[in-house]
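@channel sequence for tomorrow's demo:
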Amino acid sequence: MATDPYKVLGVEKKASPEEIKKAYRKLARQYHPDRNPDDPKAEARFKEISGAYDVLGDAEKRKQYDRGGLFGGGGGPGGGGGGAPGGFSDLGDIFSNLFGDRAGGTGAGRTAPPPRRAERGKDLEAETTITFAQAMEGAQVPLTVPTAQGCPTCHGTGAKPGTSPKICPRCQGRGIESEGQGLFSISTPCSRCGGAGTVVEDPCTTCRGAGITRTVKKYRVNIPAGVKDGSKVRLAGKGEPGRNNGAPGDLFVITRVPPSPVFARKGDHLEVEVPITFPEAARGAEVEVPTLGGTKRLRVPAGTRSGTVQRLRGEGPPRLGAKGRGDIHYRFVIDVPATLSREQSDAVDKLSEVMSGDPRSELFAQSGAKEGVS
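structure tokens (generated this afternoon):
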């Protein structure tokens, strides 16, 4: 890396992972290509920021960088480091360190590094904001994603063209170091090569020995109809490239859907609040209600109470991963005016005179309390 990733993100070396992530997000928003179209300097800065976070956002890469072994040492991205966790390439390495070279094959005298296991590329995540209508109908949206690619100059070796990584002189290509502890020895990843088994003595000038470069890729993503806020759309093989001929990772696109002013999402269904007047509730009526495709008429039965729900089957959002559509639930709410005109007030008085009975009498009867006693 041409510059210190801590300086690129503007954080201290003792910064916590949360502080690093916060700094990255702030800078990524500021220099994102979508916010700075046709500005090559902003795009270059964005790649630099993404490269710095690729190192500091990964605990292992950060440790390797802090001890000077990530770039130019063969243990960084694309420079080696396959095998089992902890730097052991196979069980032979473990037994070789416990009981000497007899169980581990050629041991320190081997002349070639152990074969590196293929590593699947890292999965990526990106967010896109779509409208409620797009979520219901499906859409194709543009997306810009910062990612890594194999260095075009060294083809991922990390070494300058015409050269190749060398067997690490400290661990002799085994990727581990042993420290005697009585009968047994404790093995740790090699401090020189970071567990790769190889070192790059003449780093590639393009990627500084990393074997990868940061880039920005643009896609047009098909969002299926029926997605919710937080749904994930998987694009297979669009993540970061694998190492040592490993398969690429996937790209997961997270959809952000602002709420609709009319339709409230309830699982696979939608809910709509429909105001009705007191006469409509008391005498019954036909009212027009909105649907995803237009409008329909619903029958309000006489004597409808506030909160009554009617359902239109199959008029809701498409079901993701299943056939059919959800429903729309219409909740009737009696609209009570905040203020009344004189004419309305007189009408309410007349209605009150002819209405008989106490609607709360049953309430007191069931509770066992006496009305009017505090």
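heads up for whoever presents: Residues 40-56 form the longest helix (17 residues).
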